[in-house]
Amino acid sequence: MTRSVLLGSASPRRRLLLEQAGWGVEQVAPAIDDGRIHLETDSPPQIVEALAWFKAAQIGPPCHPHVACVAADTVCVVDGEILGKPRDREHAARMIGSMVGRRHQTITGVCVRDRAGGRLLFSDVASVEIGDLSPETLDRYLDSGEWNGKAGGYNLIDRVEDGWPLACVDDPTTVMGLPIRRLIPILDRMDRGHRSEGRR
Length: 200
Hints:
- It is a single chain.
- This protein has 200 residues and is of the alpha/beta class.
- It has one domain (4-199): Alpha-Beta Complex (Maf protein), CATH 3.90.950.
- The chain has 7 helices and 7 strands; from the N terminus they run E-H-E-H-E-E-H-E-E-H-H-E-H-H.
- Strands 1, 2, 3, 4, 5, 6 and 7 form a 7-stranded mixed sheet that branches.
């Protein structure tokens, strides 16, 4: 039987990451606009973990057949400045321009809730380096509108497939919005716990 989670996100990329890891997914978009929330902290991990918790609280806790409820939030950080989702084309151009030719951090916070309402919060960090982009390449991308809804204005795999000079250190799925290397062992433990309780 396929194990499943309740995913507090409308992101097709996050859904695909879970499905590729062997999990069934039910998606519910939380009624929260993270772009309009301002948190009184300059700590990117605290921000993404708090936003992940707010999203998870909107949709959980999960019930059978879901093992857990999962929600996440992602930001990029350049010189201590936190970059979320761009507001418009000009904003996306500034964001991406600030990252070209150098390294930046991408941080994803995750909240996992179990059926009893317990929660686990963590964040994961990956470094990404964007090489030189020609003005024509950047303009074509900005005109496409694909930056919309993406932290830092880009998606790692899509940009790699499009030929952008990108190099990622650590877990690339962290940059894609869900740190699978850390998340899946957590879900596996929760699943084993549910199965053990079912045998009692």
